[in-house]
Structures are given as structure tokens and as C-alpha cells.
Specification:
The structure is a single chain. This protein has helices at 2-22, 29-42, 44-52, 57-66, 71-90, 96-115, and strands at residues 68-69, 117-118. With 119 residues, it is mainly alpha-helical. It folds into 2 domains: 2-66, no CATH class; 71-118. It has a two-stranded parallel ribbon with strand order 1-2. The longest helix is centred in the first third of the chain and has 21 residues, at 2-22. The protein starts with a helix and ends with a strand.
Length: 119
């Protein structure tokens, strides 16, 4: 039951990560990292598939093996988070506390991102 739950979660995270490739405000790599974690707990076959995938695998492998994030990924994430921050600043229908919490989260993620080593 435990392995089945992690396998299902892994595939859900893969699907959300792939959707994130096409939707600019949805991150891809964090969901793929979660998928890799779930697959590591549930299925060697799925975990190997994800790591060896020619598109999805490299960012996951770089993070798991070396804790490295590519400069392209950093710049893309920063640009998308910045555009989200600008949108939040001007969106009056969102309560102020929610906008401030989101801006704080975006700032913390950006700081974390740029403190990691790059390729």
C-alpha cells in the first residue's frame, strides 16, 4: 500500500511538472524532484525512467547528484517569479496580507535559487 501511494503521487507530480513546462506560472523542476523522491520510495523502474529521460532527467540528476541548478533555469524562474510579483503588486482584488505573503515566498525562493551552485 505504501509503495502504491508513493508511485501514484510520483506520477501525479510528473504530470504536474510536465504541465508546468507549458504554463509559465507553474514550476516544473520542484514537481519533478518530488516525483523522483516518490519513485525512489516506490519503484526503482520509475525512478530510473525519470532520471534517464532526455528532457525531464537532467535537472533532477543535477540536483540529486551535485545540488546544481542550471543558469538557464535560474533566469527563467527569476523572470517568471518577477512577473508574478509585478502582477501581485497591482492586483487589488487579492487581499494585502495574501499579496505580501506571496511576495515574501517569491523573494525567499529567489534567494534560495541564486544561492545554489550553477552549471
Amino acid at each position: 500500500m505504501y509503495k502504491l501511494l508513493f508511485a501514484i503521487l510520483g506520477w501525479i507530480f510528473v504530470v504536474v511538472g510536465v504541465v508546468g513546462i507549458f504554463l509559465p506560472l507553474l514550476p516544473t523542476t520542484p514537481f519533478l524532484l518530488l516525483a523522483a523522491y516518490c519513485f525512489n520510495k516506490s519503484s526503482d523502474q520509475f525512478h530510473s525512467w525519470l532520471l534517464s529521460h532526455k528532457i525531464l532527467g537532467p535537472p533532477v540528476k543535477n540536483w540529486q547528484d551535485y545540488r546544481i541548478i542550471s543558469r538557464k533555469a535560474k533566469w527563467t524562474a527569476t523572470a517568471l517569479m518577477s512577473s508574478s510579483a509585478v502582477y501581485l503588486l497591482y492586483k487589488d482584488s487579492i487581499p494585502l496580507y495574501a499579496r505580501l505573503a506571496a511576495l515574501l515566498s517569491l523573494t525567499l525562493v529567489t534567494v534560495f535559487l541564486w544561492r545554489q551552485r550553477s552549471v
